[in-house]
Amino acid sequence: MQLASLQNITANLGGQDVLKGVSFTINSGERLGLIGANGSGKTTTLRVLMGEEEPSKGTVSLASETRLGYVPQYVDGEDDEIVLDWLLREHKALDVGLRAAEERLSVASDGEMETAMAGYQETLERYDRYETDRWPQRAPRILDSLGLTGKEDQEIGSLSGGEKNILSLARALLIEPNFLVLDEPGNHLDFIGLAWLEEFLLRFKGAVLVVSHNRHTLDRVAQGILELENGTVTRYKGGYSEYRATKLRNLISQQADYAANQKRLGRLEDLVKRLALTARARPSTAAGKRLRARRSQLNRETAHAVERPEIDTSAIEANFGSERTQSNIVLRLRGYSKGYDDLSLLENVDFDLTSGERVAIIGPNGSGKTSLLRDVVSEGAWDNDTIRIGPSIRTGYAAQEQEVLDGNVTILEEIMNAPPQTNETTAFAHLRKFLFTREDLSKKIADLSGGERNRLQLARLTKLKPNFLILDEPTNHMDIPAREAIEEALAEYEGSILVVSHDRYFLDNVVNRVVELEDRDLTSFDGNFSEFWQARRAPLSRETGRVSTRGANRRAARAERADQRSGLANLERRIKEAEAEKLELEHRVGQAFENRKDRDGRRLNKQLERVSSVLEDLYQQWVSKG
Fold first, then answer.
1. Relative to the CA of 610, which of 95, 109, 202, 477 has its CA 20 to 30 Å away?
2. Beta 358-362 vs 513-518: how paired, if at all?
3. Neighbour count for residue 529 (Cβ, 10 Å)
4. What are phi and psi of 102, to 5 degrees?
């Protein structure tokens, strides 16, 4: 059954059409991902779908059976508002509205009775449709089921970012929706929380439309991808990886068509030139007719020529460009401890990072990852016995809160003054690679969005050319093309990397060692994040309710994980080999396209399809054994 439909939607923002004929439908039980570059119109599309914004053209249709629950990026409550009061805010408004309608009906005169009765019926229908009278009893049960037990009497400001995400989901579930719309629901969730959210969406019986830059979540949850680009939506089957492969195949095919079309247009142009010379040399009616016919043909085919394909033209151009340091010691911790008041985060930790290593530190939110990175940046030195940094190491730091930037200066001033100092022309040329325009140069850093500050921070970092990168959530607020551009730049970077990130796709492409912060200590695992996650993964049914708690019985969980690792070792080895082959083939297909070797691209793409199919079978076996 069709739950929602957008047909030929055009919407205007700031005097420009951000949506230009957007059309798509959502059916019962479908799980779709909506992706697009920052500023492409994703939020506008959701607002139009939700009825919060009127399109200038087109129609939005919701079936009468549709019960639409919306999960926004941010909780709109005040910090001192009580959780349960916020959850039941709409219930209170509907209840007050119903009582007011009853009061108007009771005092209405004969002439006012028809209008009062219509208003009462409309308010009562809305109240009854969502069984609003049951919300006070349902709300605590939903909080409990989502792992927020005991939080109903707390102030919203006391919740973590991840808990606020789940609170938004709780309010959407109050109406028992059959269609969930989620806007970046994974923001602020740690890996356990993300895994829990993905399992929840997989078990949800209704339809799902999720806006996300998290490619792993899109791979796990989405059955189809809606790509919003140049104001229109194109629909693809499968999750993000399948979308990406399909788009690459389409681009290769379009490149071949474009090349053939350009050759044909070139031959027609040559023919028209020869006919023009002939007509001038030997004027005749027949020569003139042939010339006019060929010119008309050339004009028609030029007007309908195949467009030149473009790949992610909105992506930033990053180049961290540092050589590998000759010093073997990059970072060494000995007896490092960290805590606040009575809270101990890390105790007597030893850790080594050597030249060329690319290490991720992961752990629950609030476990001390950012505190550790800040201490390394502010206190690390060759003569510090606790936090020692090699003598030839030049450290570059991208902070999660972007505190390395001066909010009182402009974008241009920040880049000009960052070492090495440059003039305005050189600084602007550098900023353009990170999608800043000339109009942006005079903006104060304090007035920038989170995504703009992160791009500026990375622009500053690439100018410094450090040989040791310390990155704290470097892809926050960035769209997928920008994330992939950063990944490609880091793949070519020869220095050492220490990174904290919740982006699993990013970690798979960047790091070769994962260090887990758990029980106030660091435990190392050689390999990328997927390999680590497969090895330490516990049944997700046990993780229900762990969004806001760090769980217990870790020793038993470790023993269980050891048994799983033993039984699945061979299968995981085959998955690792297939993943490596898949990544290599994707890279070679992309190179073939860029070099316009279409035949090689098609041949390699067939190999990629076969490997992807084998990998999917291996993952199915792994899931069934898990």
1. 202
2. parallel
3. 23
4. -65, -40
> Which of 243-246's residues contact partners 24+ apart within 8 Å by CB, and which partners?
243/35, 245/586, 245/605, 245/608, 245/609, 245/612
More confident residue, 324 or 481: 481
Q: Is there a cis peptide before residue 391, judged by omega within 30 degrees of 0?
A: no
Q: Of 365, 354, 338, nearest to 497 (Cα)?
A: 354
Decide if 152 contacts 83 (C-beta within 8 A). Answer: yes
Cβ 207 vs Cβ 178: under 8 Å: yes
Domain map of the chain by residue range?
Answer: 2-243, 249-303, 569-626
DSSP, residue by residue, 80-113: TSBHHHHHTHHHHHHHHHHHHHHHHHHH--TTTH
How many other C-beta atoms can be found within 10 angstroms of the C-beta atom of residue 305? 14
Q: Is 212 helix (H, G, I), strand (E, B) or coil?
A: coil
* Dihedral, CA of residue 11, residue 15, residue 20 and residue 22, to nearest 10: -20
**What type of residue sits at position 170?**
A
- For residues 31 and 14, give the distance between their C-alpha atoms in angstroms, rounded to a whole number: 31
Q: DSSP alpha helices (H): ranges in 386-449? A: 411-417, 424-432
- What separation in angstroms does the CA of 59 have from each of 10, 21, 179, 251, 312? 9, 10, 19, 31, 30
Distance, in Å, from the CA atom of 24 to the CA atom of 20, rounded to the nearest integer, reads 13
DSSP letters for 543-559: GTT-SSS--S-HHHHHH
Return the closest-CA partner of residue 515 out of 502, 534, 496, 528. Answer: 528
Alpha carbons 397 and 457: distance in angstroms, whole number? 9
The hierarchical CATH code for the domain 2-243 is 3.40.50.300
**How far is residue 494's CA from residue 293's CA, in Å, rounded to a whole number?**
60
CB atoms within 10 A of CB 526: 9
User: Residue 68: phi, psi to the nearest 5?
Assistant: -100, 120
The answer to whether the Cα torsion of 188, 192, 197, 202 is positive or negative is positive
Burial of 89 from C-beta contacts in 10 A (0-12 / 13-18 / 19+): middle
d(CA 286, CA 304): 27
Residue 442, Cβ density class (10 Å: 0-12 exposed, 13-18 middle, ≥19 buried):
exposed
Alpha-carbon span 165 to 161, nearest angstrom:
6
Please write the tens of the pLDDT for every residue from 129-186: 767 778 888 888 888 888 888 888 888 888 877 788 888 898 889 888 999 999 988 8
Structure tokens at 109: 């005169």
**Residue 585: strand, helix, or coil:** helix
Q: What dihedral angle (degrees, nearest 10) is formed by the CA atoms of 6, 12, 13, 18?
A: 60
Q: How many residues are present in the chain?
A: 626
Q: 612 with 583: CB under 8 angstroms?
A: no
Residues 6 or more apart from 44 whose CB is under 8 A from it? 11, 13, 18, 19, 53
How far apart (Å, rounded) are the C-alpha atoms in residues 197 and 217? 9
516: β partners: 362, 523
CB 455 within 8 A of CB 482: yes
Neighbour tally for 563: CB within 10 Å: 9
pLDDT beyond 70 at 622:
no
User: Rounded distance, CA 255 to CA 242, Å?
Assistant: 20
Calculate what percentage of the chain has a pLDDT beyond 70. Answer: 88
Closest among 105, 178, 173 to 141, alpha carbons compared: 173
